[in-house]
Predict the 3D structure of the following.
Amino acid sequence: NAGVTQTPKFQVLKTGQSMTLQCAQDMNHNSMYWYRQDPGMGLRLIYYSASEGTTDKGEVPNGYNVSRLNKREFSLRLESAAPSQTSVYFCASSDLGTRLYNEQFFGPGTRLTVL
Amino acid sequence: AQSVTQLGSHVSVSEGALVLLRCNYSSSVPPYLFWYVQYPNQGLQLLLKYTTGATLVKGINGFEAEFKKSETSFHLTKPSAHMSDAAEYFCAVSDLGYGGSQGNLIFGKGTKLSVKP
């Protein structure tokens, strides 16, 4: 099992460009999450999908959109990138709904720089 | 609202010394508690979790944590630090199942552990 995979690993964008970060999991998990990690800020939730067909905003959703393409895949889109979106982005999944606790499994991250 | 406070953004210990990373949480209901570790340029990996039952929880790589409800704490310890323990450690809390909560994880800001030879 590959677990949670993310593409690309690194990306440099210019202000105003758009891009989509891809995430896939092969653990048959219902729930998927997108976080951003900034120095000294810990992880902050951008969007999540509790189950296939649903998405909800997290703590810092502005400037992002998501798509839960199917049970395996959850993508994050930046429509018009801004320097403030320079960050490391992590995707995670969990089998919330079959467990009482939300144990999340994380991908390796995408390091995004917006110039 | 839930919150997590990790005391000390940087902790430095000598190899072989005790590791103690502090985590306090705020939750109005019995929490589920987690410690994750992040090695440089990698994703987060679960070290250990407290769900129910025994309050002393053992995890991977010799780490353990004790849930103390009266102190609202979940400190992470390891008796003897190894160079390979150098990483960033995150404490997280969730409250799944109470008051309609989605049970999303709330993370602390992290503690970077350095291990000196």
Observations:
- The radius of gyration of chain B is 14 Å.
- Chain B has a mean pLDDT of 90.
- Chain B touches chain A through 24 residues (CB under 8 Å).
